[in-house]
């Protein structure tokens, strides 16, 4: 079994947990943010396609997400700190809008990190997407340039600011707990404990 999958399974089961401390393993957002579904514990990973740490952590976080119970929601958000990053948010929103995220997310990461393509640039993205097999590139590009995606890019900029994201990856649990870790292993453990903490607070 792959190491990251085992770690994810251990974290969710509670076997790998260690006591966490405020100020060491997690901090609090100065302004808590509303969650999408109050009935669930919400976990958000703020990432960027140009972030090598996000790239390295991606398999472990994805494996963790697949094992979550029904009362926990997980999603990723591409951050936008400056205008030059809007292309990443546009690409990410397009994948989600066209149902191609599972197929194209990791290949896009590979292209950005390993092949050193700059997919934040429309011309680079256009060239890359036309090379991907099994997708309707014309339809996808139409979505990429649509008004709806423009709105999603604006939303990404706002949510980056609202959640006070200063580095990537940043994981926030239930709109208020900010995970502070140095390794993917510890990140998963802290996330698991904070999920339990947030769940207990709902009772």
TrEMBL record:
<dbReference type="InterPro" id="IPR023205">
    <property type="entry name" value="DsbA/DsbL"/>
</dbReference>
<comment type="similarity">
    <text>Belongs to the thioredoxin family. DsbA subfamily.</text>
</comment>
<keyword id="KW-1015">Disulfide bond</keyword>
<feature type="domain" description="Thioredoxin">
    <location>
        <begin position="5"/>
        <end position="196"/>
    </location>
</feature>
<dbReference type="InterPro" id="IPR001853">
    <property type="entry name" value="DSBA-like_thioredoxin_dom"/>
</dbReference>
<keyword id="KW-0574">Periplasm</keyword>
<dbReference type="InterPro" id="IPR013766">
    <property type="entry name" value="Thioredoxin_domain"/>
</dbReference>
<protein>
    <recommendedName>
        <fullName>Thiol:disulfide interchange protein</fullName>
    </recommendedName>
</protein>
<keyword id="KW-0732">Signal</keyword>
<dbReference type="InterPro" id="IPR050824">
    <property type="entry name" value="Thiol_disulfide_DsbA"/>
</dbReference>
<keyword id="KW-0676">Redox-active center</keyword>
<feature type="signal peptide">
    <location>
        <begin position="1"/>
        <end position="18"/>
    </location>
</feature>
<dbReference type="Pfam" id="PF01323">
    <property type="entry name" value="DSBA"/>
</dbReference>
<dbReference type="InterPro" id="IPR036249">
    <property type="entry name" value="Thioredoxin-like_sf"/>
</dbReference>
